[in-house]
């Protein structure tokens, strides 16, 4: 007779602590991560904090109390989430910072995209097309370290043009919690101050791009002002083919989510993760896995976002049915 607890391998349990599930992008990350982990025989316990630091900490503690082997965190606040890392380490569990860096902590691994380069791609794309004039920069949540990296990358491209007097940055606000309504408000204010004289809006993601475009539409400027984005959300892809949004950054999330699930399982098994990259989080150099992103516009959307199955062509072109071949 089998002795309970002997001869049966313990099932790996992974805690996944998400900032939010309100955006399409994070629902995809969750589903792809969970699916890959399940293929590897692991169970994933998921919690989402609805953009609240205290809730995320409490949820992380709850996950740790459920005998998880590894904790994967998408932090709402990259600074305060250091307390989650500390709690996990006290419990003897390793922590992976997923997509967003956890600052000033000894987080075990960081997995994301090259976010500084994403900012460069956004600004560079617009600057190549609007070589002069007024620019509005809309950053993401000031609590998100990625938002700062995007801005640093954007400014690396734009600063030389600003110093030469070729372009002028009329405003560079941040959108609290990445809210489109914040971007709408900031764009309305900038349009009012400049008398609608804006040539390009460097919006850091598709949600803020949507808010900015809503403000442009009110002034009949939709499609006349260049607008960047990020995440290749369905609404953004629809706006791109219809002409109101200029570009987005497509991040092959499937690669990130699946690789993160594989690494989490490997860590749970005690395997050593070899990383050739590192990112400074303010305390130390954190071993990192960074995946490249792709700039997408009307010309290559079909061969990237749609070909990969990230968005369905019929849905993207639903308002332009005549263009579906």
Summarize the structure.
The protein has 325 residues and is α/β, with parallel strands linked by helices. It has 11 helices and 13 strands. It is 40% helix and 18% strand.
List keywords for this structure.
Rossmann fold, 11 helices, seven-stranded mixed β-sheet, four-stranded parallel β-sheet, alpha/beta, 325 residues, disordered N terminus, single chain, globular, 2 domains
> Proportion of β residues?
15-25%
H and E order: EHEHEHEEHEHEHEHEHEHEEEHH
Count of structural domains: 2
Instruction: Tell me the strand order in the biggest sheet.
Output: 2-1-3-4-5-12-11
Report the span from N to C terminus: 64 Å
Shape: globular
Tell me the helix content.
40-55%
Broad CATH class of the largest domain: Alpha Beta
Whole-number mean pLDDT: 94
- Kindly identify the CATH topology of the largest domain: Rossmann fold
């Amino acid at each position: 007779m089998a002795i309970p607890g002997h001869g049966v391998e313990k099932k790996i349990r992974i805690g996944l602590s998400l900032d939010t599930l309100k955006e399409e992008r994070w629902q995809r990350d969750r589903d792809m991560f969970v699916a890959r982990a399940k293929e590897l025989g692991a169970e994933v316990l998921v919690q989402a904090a609805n953009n609240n630091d205290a809730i995320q900490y409490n949820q992380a503690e709850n996950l740790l109390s459920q005998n998880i082997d590894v904790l994967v965190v998408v932090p709402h606040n990259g600074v305060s989430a250091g307390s989650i890392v500390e709690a996990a380490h006290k419990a003897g569990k390793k922590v992976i910072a997923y997509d967003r860096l956890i600052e000033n902590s000894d987080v075990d691994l960081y997995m994301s995209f090259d976010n500084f380069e994403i900012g460069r791609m956004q600004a560079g794309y617009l600057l190549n097309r609007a070589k002069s004039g007024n620019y509005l920069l809309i950053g993401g949540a000031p609590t998100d370290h990625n938002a700062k990296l995007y801005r640093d990358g954007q400014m690396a491209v734009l600063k030389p043009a600003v110093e030469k007097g070729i372009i002028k940055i009329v405003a560079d606000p941040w959108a609290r919690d990445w809210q489109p309504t914040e971007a709408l408000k900031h764009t309305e204010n900038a349009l009012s101050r400049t008398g609608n004289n804006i040539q390009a809006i460097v919006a850091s993601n598709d949600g803020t791009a949507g808010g900015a475009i809503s403000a442009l539409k009110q002034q009949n400027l939709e499609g006349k002002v260049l607008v960047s984005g990020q995440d290749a959300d369905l609404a953004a892809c629809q706006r791109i083919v219809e002409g109101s949004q200029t570009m987005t950054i497509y991040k092959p999330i499937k690669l990130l989510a699946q690789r993160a699930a594989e690494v989490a399982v490997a860590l749970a098994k005690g395997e050593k993760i070899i990383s050739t990259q590192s990112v400074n989080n303010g305390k130390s150099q954190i071993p990192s896995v960074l995946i490249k992103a792709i700039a997408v516009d009307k010309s290559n959307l079909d061969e990237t976002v749609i070909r990969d199955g990230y968005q369905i062509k019929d849905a993207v072109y639903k308002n332009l049915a005549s263009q579906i071949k």
